[in-house]
Amino acid sequence: MMLGSSFNMKSAVQLQQPLKCAVRMHSLTPAVRLQPALQSARVRGARGMLGALARGSRALASAPAGQGETDSPETVSTQHFRLSPHAHPLNAKPERLTKAAYETSEGDVSNKMGRQQNHIWSREELQDKLETYKDVHTPVEFSDHVMHAIMYYGLYHPFNFITGYKEINPSPRSIEWRLIILESFAGVPGFVAAGFRHFRSLRLLQKDYGWIGTLLEEAENERMHLLVCMKMFKASWLTRTLALGAQVGLTPFLMAVYMIKPKALHRFVGYLEQTACKTYHNIITHVETPGTELHAAWAHLDAPAIAKGYWHLAPDAKWVDALKCMYADEANHRDVNHTFASMEADDPNPYLHKHREDAVKAWKIFEEEHMRKHPEKAKEVAQ
């Protein structure tokens, strides 16, 4: 019994030490807290993290005695971290959870690093993509002809008439609600295809061969296009009604097509993106051409913060720079879906390496931007 009591007391003392350490780290002043040290340790690796923890422990050892009676920022907190207003030492409690904070930090939250990472376009890549706006697929199979006819004669030309769009000197208003409706619908096919392939993988107890990730990134990319447009334009009740009608009316059609012939849906999306590339290229050309309505209305506009964060644009980027990125994304979706339409359902996704490269590139850009914003961190890493 004595042995058991001794063991329990010793165990309790040992367990109290890391708890006290965590509590002190939780509420010490910013100069003593471990959070900045842990952030720099992320760059240095595991060895740097251990060193940061050791430095934090030495700082705690040198802290004045008597800290721990109150819950002021200068002293130790005895509250559980979920009840405390202070940040948890291991960052288990996010600092920003309010909608207001989310709305005021769009440049940060639109950064997709570590999630559905989008491609960050360089100037050279944008120029190369802009030269492909005339690239089109010629229908071969019967289903290709059907999807081509539905896209161009059932949707594209009627859509031009409804929105009042004309290729020669289009008005800003005709482009505004055209882009909102286009992007609100363009995000549907990728999600539908990803959902069907997800359930197919579960149902057949087999791999998806990497398609789902690409399709989800496409859907997310189109949704981000819509959010960028909504920062530049205001949607009227008519625009919202058309966007709702397009989603309600065409989503069942897309689902039916994918159940019958998945290749046909990818071909349909390829044709849809061809028209989007044509539209965006025409918009960009007119914005950069003096004397046009779009140049007068849009050439001087700055890109919204959400676009700068999503594509990692320069701080002085213009609206036309965001439009070029949107065009490049559409050109990429065009090529990807025409490729998928020519593949079998069990063929491995040829774009998996591209996603990895995008993630690595985004991480490097993020680190460079972080070091520029926090030069003191760069000095720590260099030491």
Automatic annotation (TrEMBL):
GO terms for molecular function: alternative oxidase activity; metal ion binding. One of its GO terms (cellular component) is mitochondrion. Gene3D superfamilies: Alternative oxidase. Keywords: Electron transport, Iron, Membrane, Metal-binding, Oxidoreductase, Respiratory chain, Transmembrane, Transmembrane helix, Transport. GO terms for biological process: alternative respiration. Its main location: membrane. Its cofactor is Fe cation. The keyword Electron transport applies. It is found in: Membrane. The keyword Nucleotide-binding does not apply. Belongs to the alternative oxidase family. This is Alternative oxidase. It comes from Diacronema lutheri.
